[in-house]
Structure formats: C-alpha cells, structure tokens
Specification:
With 675 residues, the protein is α/β, with parallel strands linked by helices. Among the domains are: 255 residues, 3-Layer(aba) Sandwich (Alkaline Phosphatase, subunit A), CATH 3.40.720; 214 residues, no CATH class. It contains 22 helices and 13 strands. The strands form 3 sheets. The protein has an 8-stranded mixed sheet, sandwiched between helices. It has a 3-stranded antiparallel sheet with strand order 3-4-6, with no helix packed on it. It has a two-stranded antiparallel sheet with strand order 11-13. Helix 10 packs parallel to helix 11, helix 12 crosses helix 13 and helix 14 runs antiparallel to helix 15. The chain starts with 5 loop residues before the first helix and ends in an 11-residue tail after the last helix.
Length: 675
C-alpha cells in the first residue's frame, strides 16, 4: 500500500475541486491545464537499481525444464536497454562508503572521508510525515559538512529545484536511496512507497507534479519490467538517469550508469574524468541542473555528463575488471620483484662470491629502473594475477641483467630511464590508456584521478630520469651544457606531467622543478652564488605559473584549471591548500607511515653526510652526484607540496637508494688492486 490514507485522499479531492471551481470563475488555468504546463517543462528522473538480476527466461521456455542461469550484471541490464547511453560512475573519492556516495550525488562535490570530522556521516533515518518525509540526523550531517575544508552542501540537488523532489520506493525494500531526493534541510517533499508492480505508474504520476523524481527500482525480475516501462513512456523533455544503488560493502566501487535523453545512445564521459566510459557521481547534479536550466553553483566541482560515439558493454566490464584488481596486485608484484632480486643475489653469491654479489646489486637495481616500462606492458596485456606477477618480476630482472651486460658500468641506468620516459610521454599523448590500467598508475577506482599521472609516478619518473641523466653525464664534469641538459629534460618532463591535456598533475610540476633545479645547480661550473640558489628555490613556483599559462592558452579543462585558475576569489585557493596540508599530515600518522617516513628521512640525511664514501666508486662524479641529489630533492619537495606527501618521499628515496646500490655494485670493488 502507498503511504496515504483514504480520508486524506478525500480531503485532497475536495480541495482540488474547490480550487478548480475558483480558477474557472477567475478565468485562470485549471489544475489539468497546470499539470499540462508542468509536464511540458524539463524533468529529471533518477532511478537506482538494487543489484544483480537473473535474466528473464528465453522465449518459448514455458513448461521447459528449469535451467541454472548465471546472474547478469547491472551493466549488462542497462546495456540491454537500447535507449540508454552507458558507462561507469566513480562513487567516492578515496575510501568507499555507500552513504557518502549518495551524499556526494546531492552535493555535486566531494572530498575524501579523512577530510571530514568526524569521518563517517551520522546515521540517517527516513521518517514519513503529512508533507512527505524527512531524514532524522540531517542537522548533524550539515554540521559535519560545514566543518570540512571545502564548500559542501548536502541536499543541494533537490534543494535547488523549485518545489523540491519526490521519492518513489517499494515496500519491504531499503529506502536509503531517498537521500538523493532530500533538500538542504533533509526533507523530501513527496513520498510514495508501494508495490513493485506500480512503481513505474507512480513515478510517472509524480513526474507530472515534480521536476525531480528519485526512485529505487524493485529487486529481481520486476526491475527490468519497470525500467522498460519508464523508458518506453519517457517524453522528449525528460532526462532519465539509471544507476546501480551503492552497495553496502567496503570494496571501492565503479557503479554502472545509463542515461537517456543526451542525444544518440553511446558511451558516457565528462570533463571530470576525461575518460570515455567513466563519469563521477558528482557529475549527476550538474547534468540535472543543465537539463533543468538551473545555474550550476561555483562550489560544484562535478561537470555535466556528455556522450561520445560507441556503445560497448563488454569493454566497460573489461575496464572495470582491470581497475578492480590493480590495487590488490600493486604491492604483490613489487614484493615479488624484490623477492626475485634477493634470490638472484643469494644464488649469485653462492656461485661468484663477492663478484656475484656486485653483479646482482647492479642487475637488481636496473630491474627497478625497468619496472615502470614493464608495467605498461602488463597493462596492455591485462593478464591473470600469476602471469602478471611473473612478467613483472622475471621480466624486470631479465631486462636488468641484459642492460648491465650491454651498457658498461656506470652508465646503464640511462637506458631504462630514457625508455621509460619516452614510453610514458607517448601514452600520455594518447590519453594515458595504459597508464590508468598499470599497477603504478592513478587508479580511477579511487575517484581522485582518472587519467594522467598519479602520486607514485609523480616521484618515480623524475627520480629515474635524474639518475639516468647522471649516469649519462658520467665523466663529463660540471659545465653549462650539462646543466642545460638537466634543465631542458626537466622542462619537457614537467610539461608532460603537468599539462592539463597530458599528465594533469600540478604537484608533479613543482616536484620536477625542484629536483631538476637542484641537479642543474650542481652541474654548473664554479661556485654557486646566492642568486643561483634563489632561482632554484623559486623554480617550483615559477613552474606552476608556467603551467597555468600553458593550461589557459591550450584550453585545458583540468581540475587545476577549473578550481584554481578560474576560482572566484571566495577562498577556493585557501581551501585547496588547507585540504592538501591536512591530507598530507594525516598520511604521515597513518599505520606504519611514521616509521617509514622517519627511515626515509634518515636515509637522505645519511647519504648527504656520507656522500663522498657513497660515491667513491665513481670518484664523486658530478653527474652522479647531481642525479642522486635531484632524486632526493624530488622526494623531499614532493612531500611538502602534495596531499600524499609521505608516499612521494618513500618512492623517490627508494629509487635513489637503488641508484646508490648500482653505484656500489662497481665490478672493480671486488678486487681493489685492479683499480
């Protein structure tokens, strides 16, 4: 039964009749005419699908023996509706929470849970009343949002639509999706809870009265039936958004989504993601506002969803499947590589004693430098777990052994460094299709970055290139030409990592500028003047200004361009700065990160103090000194200017440590008399 008593229905009928008579007497439009006018205005219907569904029985199967059929996914269900453009929706930023995924849709903007205080939203209880319904706990929710380091308004979606929103649900099903229909005060203006068979009819009836209606489809086979009815009855002025209801799980989600009304059916995308087939949950609000003709507030960070040609559900499922395993495999593959290096070292020592150990030091360090390139290969192949781990570990070590044999010590790191930088720049130029699928890429599953360069690559690539350039310049001494080589490569890498249409990593530009600025300074002949040191200090900020000019002139539509360069001066810059500092600070104190950060800092300090002994095999060569110092600077400066600061420090210091291990693998150290 629907939530409405018979007496209330009678009273409403009498009031409607009286209003109609009064309107006719005054010559005003009747209720029917008003409903006709309302129906002609743009409307938005947001539908949530509860979960997996069993496919309907094939035609002619009546009376046949029952067959066991596999459940189909919601993506396949949406793809079966030819009117829908299909895609995947990034639900949250960072750690997943179903309640926060729904709230982010109503806000049109999002931050990670760790930026809230308290992190978790309060429990929300839907309470029906005579006007509709309200959520108990919304006041605490607003207070939580007000204290967050960003301009966040839960309920902005329904609260900005004249007359509010309606919610349509099914008896004995969860009504938590009704959060999307709540306004800023947590109110739902109209509520209809009834049977599964009447959901489509009830939703269509409410669309005649409300410009925004949210509904949760029935579970099971009835979902297909009601969805097909709603799509068949969709008028040209009606936008229908169908989305998987955020499941109650801790695993990060990419939710299937389909939209009817945005033109010819195809694949969904948006300026938030720049990734065909993937949009963000916060894009639903600006999409609805754009359809309804409502001005999108400046605080909204989501972007309207658009459609590109092509419609392939299998490709979406393949992308989703790959992104879901990247996080779990990342450190498994790294530990496998380190374990392979250890085994190689032990075997080499058994066979060749000290000479074998030095050889294994060089080969293993070079394997780490080859790792980013190998990860692009596995991203293209998308193999099973065991195969990928074997390719990463054995492939990297094999390339390390081969490059040590082909290139004389101590110049071998130049080969994997140049190959990696070239491969990543080419992939960035094509929209980073392999980077986002690689184990070291910015996993779109976590909703922070959907293309370009992530935090790991932001420190790893500059550190590898710096060490490679240092090896390439071995024996050439300090000169303006050598300094120009470091500076020029830094400019190229900085543009590749930071430009909106390539890497779109603003922090990476400052990191690259700092690391290559230090290296170029160390390669200049003569004494370093205060002016030169000052130029290195301001280099990251100058690089940021250059990036801003490049993005504005090239029409880059990145997060940096929208939120910083086009900020309205209402404190957006300060909010971004505070949020990044808070995230970096919380990252330092999480888990074992305090110990790891301290170890990394002490490693850098020890290397600086003992630099002459460390670089004794290369006689403190200026090129190697500049490369290692620049790599350390990448980690230190990156930690200060990035919201994942400790992670950048660890990666850069690890790369620099591998460079030092390679140097200490000097074959002549086996017999000092040979030198």
């Amino acid at each position: 039964m629907e939530i409405q008593t018979r007496s209330a229905a009678c009273r409403l009928a009498l009031v409607a009749a009286a209003a109609a008579s009064f309107a006719m007497a005054l010559g005003l439009p009747t209720a029917a005419a008003a409903a006709s006018l309302a129906a002609a205005s743009p409307r938005v219907l947001i539908l949530f699908v509860p979960g997996r569904l069993k496919p309907p029985p094939p035609p002619g199967a009546v009376g046949a023996a029952p067959q066991v059929t596999a459940k189909r996914t919601v993506t396949e269900q949406l793809a079966a509706q030819s009117q829908l453009s299909i895609g995947l929706s990034s639900s949250v930023q960072g750690r997943y929470l179903a309640a926060q995924a729904l709230l982010d849709i109503t806000q049109g903007t999002r931050i990670s849970l760790s930026s809230y205080n308290p992190e978790l939203p309060p429990p929300l209880l839907l309470v029906p009343d005579q006007r509709g319904a309200y959520f108990r706990g919304w006041m605490e929710l607003n207070q939580r949002a007000a204290e967050a380091p960003a301009q966040i308004e839960p309920g902005l979606l329904a609260g900005s639509v004249a007359g509010g929103a309606a919610y349509v649900g099914v008896n004995e099903q969860s009504q938590r999706d009704g959060v999307v229909a709540a306004d800023r005060a947590g109110r739902i203006e109209q509520l209809s809870i009834g049977s599964a068979a009447t959901l489509a009819a009830r939703a269509q009836a409410l669309l005649g009265e409300r410009r925004l209606v949210v509904a949760t489809l029935p579970a099971g086979a009835a979902s297909d039936r009601e969805l097909a009815r709603l799509l068949a009855e969709r008028s040209s002025n009606e936008l229908v958004i169908v989305m998987r209801s955020p499941p109650l799980t801790r695993r990060v989600q990419l939710l299937p989504i389909g939209i009817a009304g945005l033109g010819r059916p195809g694949t969904l995308t948006s300026s938030t993601t720049h990734l065909n087939g993937v949009v963000a949950g916060i894009d639903l609000l600006p999409t609805a506002f754009d359809w309804l003709g409502i001005k999108i507030p400046s605080a909204v960070s989501g972007q309207p969803v658009t459609v590109v040609a092509g419609r392939d559900a299998e490709q979406l499922l393949s992308l989703k499947g790959r992104l879901q395993v990247v996080g779990d495999r990342r450190y498994t593959a790294l530990w496998a590589l380190l374990g392979g290096w250890l085994i190689l070292t032990l075997v080499a020592m058994l066979i060749g004693d000290r000479a074998g150990m030095r050889w294994a030091m060089r080969a293993g360090a070079l394997a780490i430098f080859w790792l980013p390139s190998v990860l692009l290969l596995t991203a293209a192949l998308e193999p099973q777990l065991l195969v990928e781990v074997l390719i990463v570990s054995l492939g990297s070590i094999s390339l390390g052994i081969a490059s040590d044999r082909l290139v004389r010590w101590p110049r071998a790191p130049a080969l994997p460094a140049l190959v990696a930088i070239g491969a990543y720049i080419v992939d960035l130029a094509f929209g980073s299709p392999l980077i986002i699928r690689s184990l070291i890429g910015p996993n779109p599953l976590f909703g922070s970055r959907f293309y370009g360069i992530g935090n790991e690559l932001e420190s790893a690539l500059p550190a590898i290139l710096l060490i490679g350039l240092g090896a390439l310049c071995f024996g050439r001494g300090r000169s303006r030409q050598a300094a120009a080589i470091f500076a020029g490569c830094g400019v190229v890498l900085g543009i590749a990592l930071g430009a909106a249409q390539l890497g779109a990593d603003v922090g990476g530009v400052m990191t690259v500028a700092a690391g290559f600025g230090v290296a170029a300074l160390l390669m200049l002949p003569g004494r370093r003047s205060r002016r030169m040191i000052a130029l290195v200090v301001i280099a990251p900020f100058a690089a940021l200004g250059l990036l801003a000019a490049v993005d504005l002139l090239s029409g880059g539509d990145s997060h940096f361009t929208r939120t910083v360069l086009r900020a309205d001066g209402s404190g957006a810059w300060w909010e971004i700065f505070v949020r990044r500092i808070e995230l970096a600070g919380r990252g330092v104190i999480r888990g074992l990160m305090p110990v790891a950060t301290l170890v990394a800092a002490l490693t850098v300090a020890l290397a600086v103090v003992r630099r002459d002994r460390l670089l004794a095999p290369v006689a403190s060569d200026p090129g190697w000194r500049a490369g290692l110092a620049g790599a350390a600077a990448v980690g230190v400066i990156g930690a200060l200017f990035n919201d994942s600061g400790p992670m950048l420090l660890l990666f850069a210091v690890f790369i620099a440590l591998c460079g030092a291990i390679y140097v200490r693998g000097d074959p002549l150290l086996v017999d000092p008399r040979a030198r």
